[in-house]
Specification:
Helix content is 57%, strand content 0%. It has nine helices and no strands.
């Protein structure tokens, strides 16, 4: 098991308790690009954009706690699996900001274009993914869409056959963090491609 906390969601440079280059630029300064994109979208819709807060600045302690949770969640999880989980949850939540970030991170880490394209339809393209990855993707879908029917016993049991209890807890924690990041990005109207990395 590799422990890779160097990863994906670059956010706060001032991490005192943990040295995680990890984490999400979900809420750095609102850039001119984001503002222009929001204004353009609003102009096309015939509405005035509603200014959104900068979550990292407005809730610093909560933001840093989430960064710590995110870094702890990925401990012991294969970095390729980390990205698959984050990409699938971002698809389901329609979070373009996180989807753009994590597909780019996956490419930088050596993920193939074929696999990236197959993530949304992994059930029809199982040969692209290991049984372990498929179990994690199914669990990601169930937890992300929990309001639609909970987490079925069969999905949980399949995941439990591929991950020991510690690994499974970390996979679950990662699913929870990406869902939180997605909701922050959507609620604060983060624009895809503006994470400045």
């Amino acid at each position: 098991m590799t422990t890779n906390t160097t990863a994906t969601e670059t956010a706060v440079t001032d991490t005192t308790a943990t040295d995680t280059t990890a984490t999400e630029t979900v809420a750095t300064d609102t850039t001119a690009t984001e503002t222009a994109a929001a204004n353009t979208a609003a102009a096309h819709a015939g509405t005035t954009p509603v200014p959104r807060l900068d979550f990292a600045k407005s809730a610093r302690n909560a933001f840093r706690a989430l960064i710590g949770f995110d870094a702890a969640a990925r401990e012991g999880i294969d970095p390729a699996l980390v990205e698959l989980i984050q990409i699938r949850a971002s698809h389901l939540n329609h979070c373009a900001y996180c989807l753009h970030m994590h597909t780019n991170d996956a490419r930088k880490a050596g993920e193939s274009e074929d696999r990236l394209h197959m993530i949304p339809v992994w059930r029809e393209a199982r040969h692209f993914f290991t049984a372990r990855e498929q179990a994690a993707l199914a669990l990601t879908e169930a937890v992300t869409l929990v309001a639609d029917g909970g987490v079925p016993d069969a999905v949980y049991a399949e995941a439990a056959t591929h991950f020991d209890e510690t690994e499974l807890a970390h996979v679950l924690a990662l699913i929870l963090t990406i869902n939180t990041w997605n909701r922050i990005a959507l609620a604060t109207a983060k624009q895809a491609g503006t994470d400045n990395r």
